Amino acid sequence: MSEHAPTTADGYVLITREFGAPPAEVFRAWTDPETLAAWYGPEQAETPPERVHIDLRVGGRYELTMLLPGGREFTVAYEIVELVEPELLVLRSDPMPEMGMTEPATLRVELHEHGPGTRMTLRDGPYPTPGRDGAEAGWTSAAAALAKLLEAG
Description:
It is built from three helices and eight strands, in the order E-E-H-H-E-E-E-E-E-E-H.
């Protein structure tokens, strides 16, 4: 497994990470509610499996609620706009005006075979400038948790 530093440009977060698991296993980590709940979100958040709902089809919904310190909740909701198992997942978020996002963001997760493992390229945005740093920190933390989960097998 290796990690490439995240980059931000034009309001987008870009993270590339390599995992020692095949693409099908990484794809499952993104699309199986129980597995997704085990790693999704920033370090200080918890995502209960019963708060993850995925209708895995183009046009389906991909929604989850993270529990944050202080009893706060944060729900993210997407429409699945592209789906090619096990190599591509593209989600368009609902606008989040409370976060300064009046327009949808697009999350694109590409998974490619890389030796015996997988190279994941994640691109998310656009974010308003203040939100971009938080999104980058959250995705960096989540990618590290995903790597740890995949290593544990």
